[in-house]
Amino acid sequence: STRLEDLRVKLENEGLVNISYVVVNHQGTQSQRKVHLLKESVSEYITVYQQDEHQDDVWTTLNGNKDDFLIYDRCGRLVYHLGLPYSFLSFQYVEDSIKIAYCESKCGNCSHTEPDIDVVCENITEKADEKLSEIEPEPHGQHSHHHGQHRHRHHH
Predict the structure, then answer these.
(1) ∠155-85-108 over CA atoms, to 5°?
(2) Domain residue ranges of the chain, discontinuous segments joined by +
(3) Which has the closest alpha carbon to 10: 38, 41, 47, 45?
(4) How many C-beta atoms surround the C-beta of residue 82 within 10 A?
(5) pLDDT tens string 21-77
(6) How far apart are CA 5 and CA 143, in angstroms?
(7) Which is the most buried residue in 17, 84, 86, 126, by most CB within 10 A?
(8) What is the DSSP string of 33-84?
């Protein structure tokens, strides 16, 4: 969670502002008891959401696991869902996914755009796209004319 704080600051310094970060705490009593530690380890810019014991587990609802990262665009559409090992913050995947969700309209246009985003995003996305291509299937249509239905993935 302190790493998440570091990432938040790093992105903000690169000009990626107005991103909301939410940490979802586990429902168990054990986790609830430690929620203050979680809150202390992140700044007020990162929301810690405590699940209620009696609600449906957020992760079940989202078809995910507790260590996953779900990255939504400005219009609330899910752009990336990263599980382990891609959700380790020591890797670049989360950072790159955020940058792409921020800079590119992966899910089509969204009315909530940032005014001066071009300057910020100029150099960011090429690098990010390169790194993410190893875990992301290729866009539809590439190479599909060679083999009909079979789509190939390139491994780097």
Answers:
(1) 70
(2) 3-106+113-134
(3) 45
(4) 21
(5) 988 888 788 888 888 888 887 888 888 888 888 888 888 888 888 889 999 999 999
(6) 40
(7) 86
(8) HTHHHHHHHS-TTEEEEEPPTTSPPHHHHTT--TT-EEEE-TTS-EEEEE-T
